[in-house]
From TrEMBL:
Pfam families named among the record's database cross-references: Metallophos (PF00149)
The protein's name: Metallophosphoesterase
Domain of life from the UniProt record: Bacteria
Alphabetized InterPro entries for the sequence: Calcineurin-like_PHP (IPR004843), CNP_phosphodiesterase-III (IPR050884), Metallo-depent_PP-like (IPR029052)
CDD domains (UniProt xref): MPP_1
Record's keyword terms, sorted: Hydrolase, Iron, Metal-binding
Signal peptide as annotated in the record: none
Similarity section: Belongs to the cyclic nucleotide phosphodiesterase class-III family.
């Protein structure tokens, strides 16, 4: 059984020290096989924030898999944003913006959905393009049948009713079709600072809240998710910050059927 900790939207610069210490304690107890971080490592892409993020990443003892979010692009320094948008990311975090990781149990493919410029006024809105969809498909092409197929992208492919004022990711329909064809099981993301799981076109969309920052959505404490299972069954557990530590607040169970991933009640 694979155990994955999914954390997101750490927003160094707006991080909460006690929560960071609580997360490290939880990860130490959990000993996950992998820690997935789905973007927005920093608040304003400042050098000091990237340095703090780098120090945090060095504390992680397990393998990690990290992609950028829209906050990891410089917001005010337009020269940096347009001329060398990912220089700090590559210096402090990772040289690869779209990592892949494969074990006997799973394959994870990262997609960078943050954009320097958008067609809409909302530049925080992310996008996935056809080349990236093909990238996911090609990476998953020769994966063994029993290998869990995971895509990690910062922006949402599905939103709950309470968050419909936020934008869905651009290129969503083509991506969902492409992912479905590629046999994707899980689409992991962040951005809305809200934790939820939703079956969608046979796949599961799962978002983590902001794990460490004080940029909390109304009524949403800091949180992260724990994913346990394999390509037949998955348990998705939501962990919430309760003042002194992270506590489990719910577990949802899913099984893969001929029609895709479906919820079931564990007896
Ligand atoms: Fe965020
Ligand atoms: Fe974001």
């Amino acid at each position: 059984m694979t155990v994955i900790a999914h954390i997101s939207d750490l927003h160094f610069g707006r991080d909460l020290q006690p929560v960071t210490e609580g997360l490290l304690a939880s990860l130490d107890a959990l000993q996950p096989d992998l820690i997935i971080i789905s973007g927005d490592l920093t608040q304003r892409a400042k050098t000091s924030e990237f340095a703090a993020g780098q120090a945090f990443l060095r504390h992680l003892e397990q393998p990690r898999f990290i992609i950028p979010g829209n906050h990891d692009l410089a917001a005010w320094n337009l020269l940096e944003r347009f001329a060398y948008p990912w220089r700090k990311w590559k210096r402090y975090v990772a040289t690869d913006l779209e990592p892949i990781m494969q074990t006997d149990a799973f394959m994870a493919v990262g997609v960078n959905t943050a954009r320097r410029l958008g067609l809409s006024l909302d530049w925080s809105r992310g996008r996935i393009n056809r080349k990236q969809i093909r990238y996911v498909q090609e990476m998953l092409q020769h994966v063994p049948e029993d290998c869990l197929r995971i895509v990690v992208a910062h922006h949402p492919f599905w939103l709950p009713d309470s968050s419909l004022s936020r934008s869905l990711i651009g290129g969503r329909e083509a991506a969902l079709q492409g992912f479905h064809t590629a046999g994707v099981d899980l689409i992991l993301g962040g951005h809305v600072h809200l934790a939820y799981v939703q079956p969608l076109e046979g796949m599961l969309v799962s978002h983590a809240g902001t794990t460490l920052s004080n940029r909390l959505a109304p009524g949403q404490p800091n949180s992260f998710n724990v994913i346990r299972g394999d390509r037949n069954r998955l348990a998705l557990e939501q962990m919430e910050w309760r003042g002194t530590g992270f506590e489990s607040i719910q577990r949802q169970f899913f099984q893969r059927t001929a029609g895709g991933w479906q919820p079931y009640d564990e007896v």
